[in-house]
Design goal:
The structure holds 2 protein chains of 2 kinds.
Chain A (H helix, E strand, L loop, with lengths): L3 E3 L2 E5 L4 E7 L6 E7 L5 E8 L4 E4 L2 E6 L4 E6 L8 E8 L8 E2 L3 E6 L1
Parallel strand pairs in A: 2-11
Antiparallel strand pairs in A: 1-3, 3-8, 4-5, 4-9, 6-7, 7-8, 9-10, 9-11
Chain B lengths: L3 E4 L2 E4 L4 E8 L5 E7 L6 E7 L2 E5 L6 E7 L2 E7 L7 E8 L7 E2 L3 E5 L1
Parallel strand pairs in B: 2-11
Antiparallel strand pairs in B: 1-3, 3-8, 4-5, 4-9, 5-6, 7-8, 9-10, 9-11
Classes of the chains: A mainly beta, B mainly beta.
Chain lengths: 112, 112
């Protein structure tokens, strides 16, 4: 079955880099996503990566994918207090599959 | 317009009440979703509509009744709910050929 694992908490100092890790089990996953959820709010799609890529960069965000180890990471450079939120990793089997399987979420706390 | 709008933002209802949650998007997306999110948990898929037809029902109790009156609107009708149904209800939409889902801010539902 599908399973997505994340560490539950991460604490970093403002200005440092944050790295949030995720592992998944479904080898047929074709898209992997990172969502951000601030307290009391909905989910904001941050970025995604297609399974035939190993890296994607978008401004302060860098996504690394190790398909062999089924490991996904999100690096946030120059972390700011506004980055404090819960970050969910999610996978899907791709086009035609509407099933997004979410990890339990990593709560990022940024210390001023 | 890249927004998914949900109303109301907060709802308190008794176990004998009937209420409806509403969701609207104008991105031309033909897939729309309802998710339920309990505190400190990831979202769980409830329903998927594809081209205004129900395509996935994740064994949701019949006290939750979805409706898709047109391609921009998605409703969730609630009747005879239980206190354990209290949660954040999230609506999302995506293109038919994509799982890149855009989420609304959610309705925080409390059943008393």
């Amino acid at each position: 079955g599908e399973d997505v694992e994340q560490s539950l908490f991460l604490s970093v100092r403002e200005g440092d880099s944050s790295v949030i890790n995720c592992t998944y089990t479904d080898s047929s996953s074709t898209y992997l996503y990172w969502y951000k959820q601030e307290p009391g709010a909905g989910l904001q799609l941050l970025t995604y990566i297609f399974s035939n890529m190993d890296m994607k960069q978008d401004q302060r965000l860098t996504v690394l994918l190790n398909k062999k180890d089924k490991h996904l990471s999100l690096r946030i450079a120059d972390t700011q207090t506004g980055d404090s939120a819960i970050y969910f990793c999610a996978e899907t089997a791709g086009a035609g599959s509407y099933q997004l399987t979410f990890g339990k979420g990593t709560k990022l706390s940024v210390i001023p | 317009d890249t927004e998914v709008t949900q109303t109301p933002k907060h709802l308190v209802m008794g176990m004998t009440n009937k209420k409806s949650l509403k969701c609207e998007q104008h991105m031309g997306h033909r897939a729309m979703y309802w998710y339920k999110q309990k505190a400190k948990k990831p979202p769980e898929l409830m329903f998927v509509y594809s081209y205004e037809k129900l395509s996935i029902n994740e064994s949701v109790p019949s006290r939750f009744s979805p409706e898709c009156p047109n391609s921009s609107l998605l409703n969730l009708h609630l009747h005879a709910l239980q206190p354990e149904d209290s949660a954040l209800y999230l609506c999302a939409s995506s293109r038919q050929d994509s799982t890149e889902a855009f989420f609304g801010q959610g309705t925080r539902l409390t059943v008393v």
